Amino acid sequence: MSLNKTDYLKLHAWGEDDFLLRDEINRNFELIDQAFRQTPSNVVNVKAFGAKGDGITPDSDAINRAIASSKEGDIIYFPSGTFILDKTVFLLKGRTYEGVGLSTIFYLRDKANCPMFSLEPTGSLNNLMVIKNMYLQGNKFQQTAGWAGFVLHDLGYSYMENVRVESCSGSGFYLEGSEGIYGSTVYFRDVWSYGNDVYGFYISPRNLDLHLYGGDIGYNQYAGVYLGSPSSSINNAVIWGTRNGSGVIVPPSAPSVQIFNCHIEGHAGHGIEVHASHVQITGNKIYDNANIPVHYGLYDGVYVNGTEDNIVEHVVIASNIIYSGLYDGTGFHRHSVTLDAYHKNCVVKANSVQYNDNGKVDTNGILIFGLKAGDESDDGIFILSTDRPFNARPEQIYYEADTRRKIMYDVHLGWCRMLVHKKDINYGTGSVPANAKTLTISFSTVMPTANYSLSFATNWFTQVRHIDKTVNGFTVEFETPCPNIGGYFDWSLFLP
User: Fold this and answer.
1) Is the pLDDT assigned to residue 51 strictly greater than 70?
2) What's the angle, vertex CA 448, arms to CA 447 and CA 454, rounded to 5?
């Protein structure tokens, strides 16, 4: 049967106006359930095939026999007990794998050195799978490095619910696609991933339309979630305590990702690290990151980073609570938000930012760093300043969040520029001497280029011609000289 998410499961075709996914995710869980109920099911109890679940006897062979005997639409049932896995359990598509909650335990035997569960490539999409109500313990200290709890290839039109994976020597969940086959339309609801030695979730670029809803992801090694799949989301999750990396990483392969209503705290690196375009980060609580002493002041609440070959654009960071140093000995981030040089047309609005230094308020961390022409912020008006900001890096532009003023620096070029309505601008006003035919304006700071656009207006009717533009100033000529009572002017320039 050919599967199509809009025709077979009647799933919503996502559009650019979609903002919140909660109702859509719940509906899609129900639709996938309905698709399963349309196929007659047979319950396959793994104990009927010799699995003991006694915490002593190796059970992998018996479980694999049970799965091999089943057909699509069947329920593979795991009763309460501790099932010892001495080798990988191989899953098959089109089945439900169901335990009875945290009392259904899978424990990886000492020196098994293998993934706990694996869904192997089949040359087509592995669709219509449900995995729920179970607990995996990876026994990482007795394994060689790199073994995951779940390795799932080419998974599609499926969901996982109420599953806990803990203490794997690799990632808790590892989702991969095959050449020419992308995993698609997969939902994870209330899933936990703790204390794993690579990622809590690794979702490769050969997936799309994957969604994490709820759950608790913490104390993993390099990231809570590596979200490599485009058109995906994380919603209402708690992501905490990455030991040597960031909470969420969105690589260049994953445009059009949403992260919203999450609690993201206490990571050794950034709270959220974005390298892709069209990412939306809204309504999250992001706090106490850069949470180990050697990282104090080096990482941010949200970090947006492109490259010369990958200009990151239209990242929206809005309505988040971002703070640091709330308690004694907790993390001290560098800035609330940092946008590196290779970005454009980003939006940073309506965020609440606070920074405490062991209980003392410190404004150094209340910063939105890196805004530039084309970006949108709460107050787009910037004033000139020659002060070098705290912790500024030479290649960056710097923005100080303050209720009374906004300052933008380019410390590498040694000059400052103002931002009004998303344009780089300098401006001035003054008087014109009586009968003057020309006027020269000198800048208070040297411009980086003479290739600027100039606007000049007077209070008498005349045509104005720009006869000289330099980095130090400009001269204009009036077709009609200034009246003998004198006049006034205003000017503005826009940098390219």
Assistant:
1) yes
2) 55
